[in-house]
Specification:
- 57% of the residues lie in helices and 14% in strands.
- By secondary structure, it is of the alpha+beta class.
- The protein has a domain of 118 residues: ATP synthase, F1 complex, gamma subunit (Pyruvate Kinase, Chain: A, domain 1, 3-Layer(aba) Sandwich).
- α3 crosses α5.
- The longest helix has 78 residues.
């Protein structure tokens, strides 16, 4: 997000940031123009939070205050890996909308162009005026949930690594303790044997 903002700033484009989560909010608060931030519920995303973000974006876009919207979040690829994603949200790309699985990235199916024509009732403007805000809301909420899943995956991976490291440390310390204890016992035995030999000689 910071790289995107810097590249736009070089072109004279102002950037607004909506930060979700304590760390992003704290990080960007003194660096970028943060217009909205949410803290304390990044691990359990709230649908109302997504609705507030969506409403702000749609209203600002309609009013001409925003030219484009980019979504930056972590995608939970699997239980171990997370990948950073940057998705173009607005304006909608007509080419991508013409794809059966676009504009969202689908990891299993290749996009197929829709060849059918559509009839809109009452009008395309009215139908899309209802669908597009719902689509924006859904994409934002999905990103929040995906990011939360990625966070939990990263925590699980970190705890697994910490457990393995702790187990290795315990094993190493146990061997070290055993060596020291064995050396102490051996020294005591040598002292006893040496004392007994000295008594026998007397």
């Amino acid at each position: 997000a910071e790289k995107l903002a810097a590249s736009w700033a070089n072109d004279g484009i102002e950037c607004e940031i909506i930060a979700c989560g304590r760390k992003p909010a704290t990080y960007f608060r003194d660096r970028e123009n943060v217009v909205m931030h949410f803290e304390g519920n990044s691990s359990e995303p709230d649908f109302n939070q997504a609705r507030m973000i969506s409403s702000h974006i749609c209203d600002a876009y309609r009013a001409g205050e925003l030219d484009r919207v980019e979504l930056v979040y972590h995608h939970a690829k699997n239980r171990v890996d997370q990948e950073l994603r940057v998705e173009h949200l607005l304006p909608l790309d007509p080419e991508m909308i013409a794809m059966a699985h676009g504009p969202r990235k689908n990891e299993t199916d290749a996009p197929k162009r829709i060849s059918s024509t559509f009839e809109f009732v009452p009008s395309p403007e009215h139908v899309l005026g209802k669908l597009v805000p719902s689509y924006i809301l859904t994409v934002i909420y999905q990103a929040l949930i995906d990011s939360a899943a990625a966070e939990q995956g990263a925590r699980r991976t970190a705890m697994h690594s910490a457990t393995e490291n702790a187990t290795a440390i315990i094993s190493t310390l146990t061997r070290t303790y055993s060596r020291v204890r064995q050396a102490s016992i051996t020294t005591e035995i040598n002292e006893i044997v040496g004392g007994a030999s000295a008594l026998e000689e007397q």
